[in-house]
Protein backbone atom coordinates (compact mmCIF):
# COMPACT_ATOMS: atom_id res chain seq x y z
CA UNK A 1 0.00 0.00 0.00
CA UNK A 2 1.33 3.43 -0.94
CA UNK A 3 2.09 5.50 2.17
CA UNK A 4 1.31 8.77 0.37
CA UNK A 5 -2.22 7.58 -0.39
CA UNK A 6 -2.79 6.71 3.23
CA UNK A 7 -1.23 9.86 4.61
CA UNK A 8 -1.71 12.84 2.29
CA UNK A 9 -0.74 15.16 5.13
CA UNK A 10 2.67 13.49 5.27
CA UNK A 11 3.14 14.18 1.57
CA UNK A 12 2.21 17.84 1.94
CA UNK A 13 4.62 18.26 4.86
CA UNK A 14 7.38 16.65 2.82
CA UNK A 15 6.77 18.94 -0.14
CA UNK A 16 6.60 22.00 2.11
CA UNK A 17 9.85 21.06 3.82
CA UNK A 18 11.62 20.51 0.49
CA UNK A 19 10.52 23.90 -0.84
CA UNK A 20 11.44 25.70 2.39
CA UNK A 21 14.88 24.09 2.71
CA UNK A 22 15.60 24.81 -0.96
CA UNK A 23 14.84 28.48 -0.40
CA UNK A 24 17.15 28.56 2.62
CA UNK A 25 19.94 26.88 0.71
CA UNK A 26 19.61 29.30 -2.19
CA UNK A 27 19.68 32.28 0.16
CA UNK A 28 22.77 30.95 1.93
CA UNK A 29 24.54 30.30 -1.37
CA UNK A 30 23.86 33.84 -2.60
CA UNK A 31 25.29 35.23 0.61
CA UNK A 32 28.34 33.02 0.29
CA UNK A 33 28.94 34.19 -3.29
CA UNK A 34 28.89 37.82 -2.18
CA UNK A 35 31.42 37.23 0.58
CA UNK A 36 33.81 35.24 -1.59
CA UNK A 37 33.57 37.73 -4.42
CA UNK A 38 32.06 35.30 -6.91
CA UNK A 39 28.65 36.91 -6.86
CA UNK A 40 27.23 39.68 -8.99
CA UNK A 41 27.20 42.40 -6.35
CA UNK A 42 28.16 42.64 -2.70
CA UNK A 43 25.54 45.31 -2.00
CA UNK A 44 22.75 42.96 -3.02
CA UNK A 45 23.55 40.54 -0.24
CA UNK A 46 21.57 40.53 2.97
CA UNK A 47 24.80 39.42 4.68
CA UNK A 48 27.20 42.24 3.84
CA UNK A 49 30.66 42.44 5.34
CA UNK A 50 29.65 45.28 7.62
CA UNK A 51 26.89 43.14 9.13
CA UNK A 52 29.18 40.28 10.14
CA UNK A 53 29.67 40.66 13.86
CA UNK A 54 30.49 38.30 16.65
CA UNK A 55 27.72 37.21 18.97
CA UNK A 56 29.88 36.97 22.09
CA UNK A 57 32.96 38.30 23.82
CA UNK A 58 34.61 34.89 23.60
CA UNK A 59 34.03 34.61 19.87
CA UNK A 60 35.34 38.13 19.25
CA UNK A 61 38.53 37.32 21.20
CA UNK A 62 38.96 34.09 19.22
CA UNK A 63 38.40 35.81 15.87
CA UNK A 64 40.99 38.46 16.76
CA UNK A 65 43.38 35.62 17.66
CA UNK A 66 42.66 33.93 14.30
CA UNK A 67 43.17 37.20 12.43
CA UNK A 68 46.48 37.87 14.17
CA UNK A 69 47.77 34.34 13.48
CA UNK A 70 46.91 34.70 9.81
CA UNK A 71 48.34 38.23 9.47
CA UNK A 72 45.02 39.99 8.86
CA UNK A 73 45.56 42.02 12.05
CA UNK A 74 48.76 42.97 13.78
CA UNK A 75 50.16 45.28 16.38
CA UNK A 76 49.76 46.04 20.02
CA UNK A 77 46.24 47.38 19.54
CA UNK A 78 44.84 44.05 18.34
CA UNK A 79 46.69 42.01 20.97
CA UNK A 80 45.62 44.42 23.72
CA UNK A 81 41.95 44.16 22.72
CA UNK A 82 42.23 40.36 22.50
CA UNK A 83 43.85 40.13 25.94
CA UNK A 84 41.25 42.39 27.55
CA UNK A 85 38.41 40.40 25.99
CA UNK A 86 39.97 37.16 27.22
CA UNK A 87 40.10 38.66 30.70
CA UNK A 88 36.37 39.33 30.48
CA UNK A 89 35.70 35.73 29.43
CA UNK A 90 37.33 34.24 32.51
CA UNK A 91 36.11 36.97 34.85
CA UNK A 92 38.75 35.92 37.36
CA UNK A 93 37.36 32.37 37.42
CA UNK A 94 39.16 29.07 37.24
CA UNK A 95 38.12 28.32 33.66
CA UNK A 96 40.78 29.54 31.18
CA UNK A 97 39.52 31.56 28.22
CA UNK A 98 41.00 29.00 25.81
CA UNK A 99 38.41 26.46 27.03
CA UNK A 100 35.47 28.71 26.13
CA UNK A 101 33.58 27.14 23.16
CA UNK A 102 32.93 30.55 21.55
CA UNK A 103 36.65 31.39 21.80
CA UNK A 104 37.60 28.01 20.32
CA UNK A 105 35.29 28.55 17.33
CA UNK A 106 36.64 32.05 16.82
CA UNK A 107 40.27 30.90 16.99
CA UNK A 108 39.41 28.45 14.18
CA UNK A 109 38.05 31.33 12.07
CA UNK A 110 34.34 30.76 12.68
CA UNK A 111 32.40 33.94 13.36
CA UNK A 112 29.35 32.99 15.42
CA UNK A 113 26.79 35.77 15.09
CA UNK A 114 24.17 36.64 17.67
CA UNK A 115 21.39 35.66 15.27
CA UNK A 116 22.74 32.12 14.96
CA UNK A 117 24.54 32.57 11.65
CA UNK A 118 28.11 31.33 11.25
CA UNK A 119 30.71 32.44 8.74
CA UNK A 120 33.88 30.41 8.34
CA UNK A 121 36.70 32.78 7.43
CA UNK A 122 39.02 29.89 6.56
CA UNK A 123 36.84 28.43 3.78
CA UNK A 124 38.39 28.03 0.38
CA UNK A 125 37.67 30.86 -2.01
CA UNK A 126 37.29 33.56 0.64
CA UNK A 127 39.14 36.62 -0.61
CA UNK A 128 41.86 37.92 1.68
CA UNK A 129 40.47 41.45 1.42
CA UNK A 130 37.06 40.21 2.61
CA UNK A 131 38.59 38.36 5.56
CA UNK A 132 40.66 41.44 6.47
CA UNK A 133 37.51 43.59 6.42
CA UNK A 134 35.70 41.14 8.73
CA UNK A 135 38.74 41.08 11.05
CA UNK A 136 38.78 44.87 11.24
CA UNK A 137 35.03 44.93 11.93
CA UNK A 138 35.37 42.36 14.74
CA UNK A 139 38.31 44.31 16.21
CA UNK A 140 36.19 47.47 16.34
CA UNK A 141 33.34 45.49 17.86
CA UNK A 142 35.75 44.05 20.42
CA UNK A 143 36.82 47.56 21.44
CA UNK A 144 33.20 48.47 22.08
CA UNK A 145 32.80 45.38 24.31
CA UNK A 146 35.51 46.59 26.69
What key attributes describe this structure?
single chain; about 150 residues; mainly alpha; two-stranded antiparallel sheet; DUF2501 domain-containing protein
Structure description:
The structure is a single chain. A hairpin with a 5-residue loop joins strand 1 (110-112) and strand 2. Helix 3 (57-69) runs antiparallel to helix 4, helix 3 (57-69) runs parallel beside helix 5 and helix 3 crosses helix 6 (128-145). The protein has 6 helices and 2 strands, in the order H-H-H-H-H-E-E-H. With 146 residues, it is mainly alpha-helical. It has a two-stranded antiparallel sheet with strand order 1-2. It is globular, with a radius of gyration of 20 Å. The chain has 2 domains: 3-44, no CATH class; 49-145, no CATH class. It has helices spanning 3-6, 8-36, 57-69, 76-90, 101-107, 128-145, and strands spanning 110-112, 118-120. Helices cover 59% and strands 4% of the residues.
Amino acid sequence: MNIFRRHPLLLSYGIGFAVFSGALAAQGFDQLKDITGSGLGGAASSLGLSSITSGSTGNAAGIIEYCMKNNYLSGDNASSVRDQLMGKITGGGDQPAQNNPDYINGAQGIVSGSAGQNVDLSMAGMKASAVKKVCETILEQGKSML
